[in-house]
C-alpha cells in the first residue's frame, strides 16, 4: 500500500515536512516494484508530479541512495542502512530471530514474525527454507491482513467495530479461487480465530500454500504474530494443528516471557 502523500499534505499540519514525505514515497515505490524505474513510472505509482519525482530522485542520487542509468533509476545498497536501523533497534525482532531459526530447524518449514503496519502484515523477522512460495518473502515484505494467517490473528484482536472499518476501507480481492472475500464470512472467521487462539489459512493467499499462526501478546494486548507456512501437498490440516501449533505457541510464550511492549 503506497502512502497517499496528497492526503497527508492536505491536513494542514505546520510541522509536516512535505519534501521528506515525497522522498519517502519515491523510495517506497521502488520497494513495491522491486525493479529500476523511470521518472514517469515513479510519478504514476506515487501520484506525485514528474518534476517533484525528478527532484526527489536527483537528491537520492546525490546522497548515494539511488543510481541513474540513462532514464532509469535504481536503489543502491546504501538504502539497506535505513532498514537495518529498524532491525538493530527492534528488540522484538532481535529476540524472535533465534527462536524462529530453531523452530525452522526443528520442523524444516519457514517461520515468520509479523506486525500490523498501514493495514498490512509487515514481516519483521523470518527464518526460511528455500522451497515454498512463488511470492518471495523476506524481512520487510508486506501481505494483506484478510487472507493470511498472521493477518487474521492480528485482526482478531481488534474490536468488531475496527474490524468492520478495516474491511470497508480495504479492497478485498481473491488471491486464489479459495480466498474468502465475503465480508460477513471474514468477520465470522475472525471471531472463530479469537476463540481458538490460532488462525489457519488454506490456499487462500497462494494455491498450494497452507499456514498457521498464533498471537504474541504484550502488556497492551496482541503486538505481533508468528506463523509457519508449508506446502499443502506435504502437510495436512490436522498436521498443522498437531505438529506446528505446539512449536508456535512455545515461541510466542518465550517471547512474551521476555517482556513484550
Give a quick summary of the entry.
The protein has 261 residues and is an alpha+beta fold.
Would you give an account of this structure?
The protein has a 6-stranded antiparallel sheet, sandwiched between helices. It has a 3-stranded antiparallel sheet with strand order 1-3-2. It contains 10 helices and 9 strands. By secondary structure, it is α+β, with helices and mostly antiparallel strands. The protein is globular.
Features:
single chain, 261 residues, alpha+beta, six-stranded antiparallel sheet, three-stranded antiparallel sheet, globular
Mean pLDDT: 86
| Shape summary | globular
Q: Please, how many helices?
A: 10
Strand content: 15-25%
How many individual β-strands? 9
- Which percent range fits the helix content? 40-55%
Strand order of the largest sheet: 6-5-4-9-8-7
- Residue stretches low in confidence (pLDDT < 50, at least 5 long) are none
SS-based class = alpha+beta
- Radius of gyration from the CA trace? 20 Å
* Terminal-residue CA separation: 26 Å
Question: How would a textbook summarize the main sheet?
Answer: 6 strands, antiparallel
Reading the helices and strands in chain order gives HHEHHEEHHEEEHHHEEEH
Amino acid at each position: 500500500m503506497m502512502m497517499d502523500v496528497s492526503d497527508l499534505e492536505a491536513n494542514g499540519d505546520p510541522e509536516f515536512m512535505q519534501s521528506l514525505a515525497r522522498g519517502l514515497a519515491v523510495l517506497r515505490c521502488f520497494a513495491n516494484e522491486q525493479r529500476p524505474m523511470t521518472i514517469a513510472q515513479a510519478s504514476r505509482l506515487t501520484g506525485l508530479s514528474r518534476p517533484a519525482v525528478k527532484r526527489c530522485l536527483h537528491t537520492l542520487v546525490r546522497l548515494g541512495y539511488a543510481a541513474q542509468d540513462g532514464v532509469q533509476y535504481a536503489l543502491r545498497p546504501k538504502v539497506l542502512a535505513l532498514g537495518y536501523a529498524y532491525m538493530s533497534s527492534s528488540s522484538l525482532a532481535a529476540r524472535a530471530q533465534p527462536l524462529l531459526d530453531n523452530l525452522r530447524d526443528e520442523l524444516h518449514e519457514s517461520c515468520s514474525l509479523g506486525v500490523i503496519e498501514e493495514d498490512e502484515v509487515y514481516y519483521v523477522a523470518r527464518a526460511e527454507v528455500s522451497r515454498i512460495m512463488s511470492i518471495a518473502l523476506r524481512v520487510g515484505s508486506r501481505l494483506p491482513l484478510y487472507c493470511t494467517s498472521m493477518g487474521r490473528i492480528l485482526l482478531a484482536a481488534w474490536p468488531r467495530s475496527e474490524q468492520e472499518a478495516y474491511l470497508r476501507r480495504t479492497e478485498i480481492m481473491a488471491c486464489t479461487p479459495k480466498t474468502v472475500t465475503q465480508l460477513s464470512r471474514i468477520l465470522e472467521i475472525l471471531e472463530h480465530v479469537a476463540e481458538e487462539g490460532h488462525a489457519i489459512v488454506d490456499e487462500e493467499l497462494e494455491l498450494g500454500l497452507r499456514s498457521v499462526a498464533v498471537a504474541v501478546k504484550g502488556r497492551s494486548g496482541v503486538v505481533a504474530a508468528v506463523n509457519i507456512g508449508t506446502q499443502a501437498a506435504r502437510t495436512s490440516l490436522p498436521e498443522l494443528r498437531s505438529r506446528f501449533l505446539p512449536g508456535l505457541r512455545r515461541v510466542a510464550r518465550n517471547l512474551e516471557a521476555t517482556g513484550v511492549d
